[in-house]
Amino acid sequence: MDATQTSLAEQWLAYCRPRLPLQNPLWAFVHNNILMQFEERPFLEAVREAAALYRARPFESEAFYRSELARGRIRRECLDEVLARHRAKLGEVDVEGFLSRPSIGDTLAPLEHRRLAPRLARELAQRHQRRLEDLLVPLIAAYLDQGLAAWSSPLAEMTLWDAFRASLATAPSWSFDWRAQLVRRLQTHDSAARDLDALIEAEAREGAHDADGAAYCLETLFVLKGWSGLVWRLESEPAVAPVRAPANLRLRDWLAILLVTQHALDDALLEELGLTRAELLQRPAPIEATRGLARLALWQEAYERSFVGPFLEHLERGPREPVESAPPRYQALVCMDDREESFRRALEAPGGGCESFGVVGFFGVDMRFERVGAALATCQCPPIITPSRTLRETPLDGEGAALERLQQAGRAGATASLAAYYHSRSLLRGVAVSLGLGLASFVPLVFKTLLPSRIERWRELVLRTAFPRPRTRIALEAADGYSVQEQANIVESVLRTCGLTQGFAALVAVIAHGSTSSNNPFRQAYGCGACSGNSGAPNARAFAAMANSREVRALLEKRGLVLPEQVLFAPCLHDTALDRIEMLDRHSWPAERALELEQLRASLFAAARANACERAARFEQGPVYGLRQVSAADAEAVAQHVQDRGHDLAQPRPEYGHNRVAACIVGRRERTRGLFLDRRCFLVSYDPTQDPNGEQLPAAVLGSVPVAVNIAMDYYFSRVDPEGFGAGSKLPLNVVSLLGVITGSKSDLRIGLARQMVELHEPLRVLVLLEARAEHVSRLVKGHARLSRLVRGGWMQLGRIDPDTHALELWNGAEFEPWRDALPEFAEPGGGASALASIFDSAADRLAPALP
Amino acid sequence: MITLETLLVGGLAAAFLPCAAMGLSLLLGVPMSERRSQQSAHAQAVVLLVVAATLITAHVTGEGPRELRLAPLIEAHGYAWTPVFLLDRLSLAYVALVALVHPVVVRFSIPAFHRESGAQRYWFLVSLLALSLWLVSLAGNIDVLFVGWELVGVCSVSLIAFFRHNLRSTENSLRTLVYYRACDAVMLFATVWIHHELPSADFTQFASASSSKAAAAIGTLLVLSSLAKSAQLPMSPWLHRAMEGPATSSAIFYGALSVHLGPWLLLRTEPLWGEHLLPRAACGAIGVSTAVYASLVGRTRPDAKTAIAYAAMAQLGVIYVEIALGFERLALVHLWAHAGLRTWQFLRSSSLIQDFQANPLVGADVRLRTRAGLWRGLVGPELERRVYLAAMRGFWLDAVHWRSVARPTLALFAWVQRMEERALGAVRREER
Amino acid sequence: MQTRVGTELDAPGDPRARVALAIGAVLAAVLWMLNEPLELAAAWLAFGAWTVWRARASATPRLPLLALVGGASGGVVLLAPHLPQWALAGCLVIGAGVAPAHLWLESLRRSLARDEFALVLVAQPFAALLHGFVHAYPDALEPQTLAVLQRVFVASALIHAGLALVRREPERVLGAVIQSQSALVIAGAAAGETGWEAARMLLASTMGSGLVLTSIASELRRRFGALDAASHHALAEAAPKLHRLFVVCGWTFVGLPGGLAFFAEDLLFHALVDQSVGATVGFIVAAGFNAIAFYRLYLALFTGPAVHPPHPTSATASWKIAGLTLAVLALLVLGLLPSLLVSHGG
Description:
Low-confidence stretches of chain A: 847-852
Strand order of the largest sheet of chain A: 11-10-14-15-16-17
Low-confidence stretches of chain B: 428-432
Mean pLDDT of chain A: 90
Number of helices of chain B: 16
Distance between the termini of chain B: 75 Å
Helix content of chain B: over 70%
Mean pLDDT of chain B: 90
Strand content of chain B: under 5%
Helix content of chain A: 40-55%
Largest sheet of chain A: 6 strands, mixed
Number of domains of chain B: 2
Oligomer: heterotrimer
Shape of chain A: globular
Number of strands of chain B: 4
Structural class of chain B: mainly alpha
Radius of gyration of chain A: 29 Å
Strand content of chain A: 5-15%
């Protein structure tokens, strides 16, 4: 269709679609830069527009920055330097002047609302929003419902617009106060025989006083931003709907509904007030969230510099103790995830004899995976990649009967739980369920609450005894599986990218990670980001199977990558919430190496325990809150505590996820090994010395850096405005339609992360350091569209570690310059450990206790 | 040997003290540390559990119902407000329920309310709820019961408004208060009337007063006064609005302890009005209509919490019917079991996405939703759609109340105010 | 309409206004201490004269005519107990300022400074008047007249409770609730010694809570400007101390168990039901409305979406907070131990 044929409404929709919040149903949650579609533009400009649309503040508050300055997390000299750099705009001003005059730096005027409602008195504007939600939220929630309601909605077969009309037609004239205005408006359109496009055009023309229909439609969609985003997401990619994609879902219908209801509501209120639309439009309507952004941006800059400076200094100084030179006893491939930084540090503790490599946690295996006993295949690769094939878990020979038994039991249990779910909500069968299950439900009620993890362990034990889990493998060689050639490609690419091409230890642990949490609609946000929020276990199993395969090794040898005979790849799973290690596919281990593997298991176990202790220092209700050193007895208590956290229904913080993540280092582990990084850093292994032409660099960077930015930005926005960009507190959240959460009973669909998930986070744009030659980095950044947008727009800070001199450099927009030149306030090497106190302090970032 | 009386008074004092301490610290603006308020609530829950266990053991091994009278709090001109407590199977059944559910919710809230602003307010309200539930369930006369009843209502309303920056939660809390108040007024009147008409307000004397001519009327008033707490028709529309509060308070109030007070009141006072047709008929009719209404509406709910709320309302309707039909023991068992089920469902209402994800049937070829198949066959798709659309909107009961009661009342007083202005305007015109 | 607010007399620290207010308070206290009809009449008229003086001194330089009528009728009943029943009843209704004769109070509100009008409401001179009258001339009113009077009081309680639901200015909402409660007090006072026992408790509660609540409302006005009960102001964080006192005092004021008013109302209803079932129902309904009105006002003042936390112009003096806290504590203690206020009469 060429441009002349496209209707105006279609053009407007085309403008709106990419700007809507980008969030999957929570079922398939992935971290995204919530403003990914705004990355074209410089950060400040983009967040300003977003602030207007989301009605949310894109920086922390002035009060926050002031308190960070007071406690030394923002350094005065950094703020001073920021003020000096912006002298042209601000004039001569020092820190004192900046603090005492809140107008300094406030150079951007607030943007204006386009809609009528925000111009009403505050009370009326709030009522406007609430009335709209009262009418529309039950409708859209029922329309999109994936199976929470027992009565499957007869609306789902209609288009959304028809469902809206049907719902309105059934409503009696007295059912809501502004029905008359709504009906009148619809009659006007009907009598003019307008189709939906014409209706949208007519409505938007009426509403948009500055004739910018597209922007007006966008602002209208943002009235219920969460639902609008979901409607578009489900329309554009129906496969993300967990159960049933609504066939007739169109954003167009939803826009028409929003326009017409909103204008009808405007009419009703105008009548009430005795005003005309034109009169009301005279009133100014500045968007509060866009006030003072330029000044806050200055604060943010100082905040980030105050992190980058000490961090780079720390990195430059390197580890205190020299790294052991003895050849490693084990090697470990671990996900780049920042949560694994502390785990790897513990694993590589002196005397352990372990060496670790950071890789992207799907281990190059881009598959959909069908687990035994699951109905749906899970996506086991980063969301930016489309899985190339679907692999199945299959029983080993002779295990078929056990599998059958397990599956039967699983189906029976599933049927029973669905029946209990639906029937407990019906009338007569509900009597039976409540009499039959009611008294029984006191048992889990009491025990699951009091002994969360123990009860889970016992349950598992009973189930395993009754229905032993059959030994399985992943059917790599299946018809649509990976050929040997492809397997070799995967193994080669992973090993070459991370630089593990020689000096193999006898055992290489392939450590995937996942996370256990209970009663948590956001569970998917804690999983492995590189496996679309799922556990990476299948990938580790698949990768280990490939790397252990003789055919693959033979092929690799031909390509110059020699894997000695005795090298054994052992797949493992690290549960980042429970800090539990599971050795996968034990049945495939050669019997003669059992002892070795047992030693590996023990050292992984010890590392996980140490990791738990480090994490627990930030768990305020835990046994070792704030302690750096944990005694053996306490370690036992910590282990129990973190297990309980993961299984506790009441626990809104099973783990702190990516809280405080601030940097991403792509380079050799030697640069960071033994260095305390406080779980603030993604660590991707890449060895530039083995890659003189920079051929592996794209694989190392493009798989990791965009993910790092997505995660950092998702946390950033949810943290700076937990209500506007995030989902607010977890406590009032209510699962709706199996797709998302709302607050209470009828609110907009919540986007972003809940407050409890980001409360320790420091909202920073991520600092990316690449250990590579400058020309390779420039080539890479220029050649990759998104990366160059991110760098140009200031969505991340790019830096470089010189492979030869180990010098640190920062990108200043035009070239790399030594970091002390880029951050002149750090020109003098700082004073040792105290300089780090502010960014690595385990005490100061804890929140003040809540107010009563 | 500790007497039952000291045990009871001790238990009530133990329930009262943490609550008073937290309330006082809130009032005086010297907030307790988070840990301290958790400890207070926790200690209260544990003590109450122990006291309840002792009372129940004493009852089971002892000689049956006991009535304990304390000194009157106030005595004037033939009127006395006497704390009377009754230990019998019925009261101990509810005490046992409270003693079981309350500590679980307290334990549940400790991590959930960690670092939540306003947590101390929550702890105070939950411990006040425990105290008031003890008063209600152990009350030996209507006066003590009324005290607890009112306090439960205030706790409930305050917790709906717990997130006080959320407009919907504050407004819904006000709506809820209106429904509570309407029924509390009926109950207050019933209380006054009981004192006026019957020889005694003690529950033990109710059976002997059942032949009094006021018994039927008082019974009917009691049935009416129980409607709001249990969200029975026509006082139903507040319950889904109450879902604005935290899930833990939804569990303890609307899954278990507050919402079952209605049937419990009826069981308690049944000896008085059981012989009369009018209250029984009212109870049964209300129960049937609520059960049908709530199960229709509940089936259309696409969100976790309001679906449970309506399901609970429907089962409560069934319990009302059971009481009307005279199956008191069944009603008591149903009440108990139902409270356990709904508490469990509310507490894990956030698990639904996980549950469905883990369920091997979801998404496969197995029918996920239970279609209203029989229904559809009987009524045809057109009518089904109409009923669905009406049920989706709760049959506009809210609007009915708003249009027929609230708005005319407000309009009347707005008119009075205008009249006032006009009358004064004649005298002091310059002010207008 | 109600824009004539904050005259210069409202300005804090104006010594003249303070002295005048103190004089009024003394006069009101005197009114409560006297028993003899003549003395009482004198005190009543003196208090009336004080209001007229203050009304003259305020911005509108005209006599509050209606207030004069109201004050005079109060004096008349005390001095001439042998008037015909209808006249006595009429004068009592007017003097007590119950609806529809509350208009003179309403007009007085418009010509007095806020604090002064609050004093008039909180001091409850009407109850003193009625009680004094019934006490001095126990037989002056015939039972039928009393029955009629009771209906008027019920109507007044209902009307004021209803007005509290629709009014927008916080002080006026509180004023309406106080007037509604005071109709109950008056009904008790007019019911002779039996009801007086209950009414005395309710009176203590109404005076105490009314004082606390109106002080908080005027303090909020001083700090945050004019507030409106129809929208949400979210002051809970901006004025945490006032918030706590307001919510506790308000709940006890409207009859929550644990406050003095609970037992008072309970006792009063039991006393009233012997006289008239209908009146009891009316009062119960009014009490229900009052609770709703208070809660609505509380939500409007202290909760709601805090888009811009309002910046107070100044803090509340700590002696004020201390005083209010003591008052609230006293109400709570009396609520738990009501027998401190009630004689164990037969």
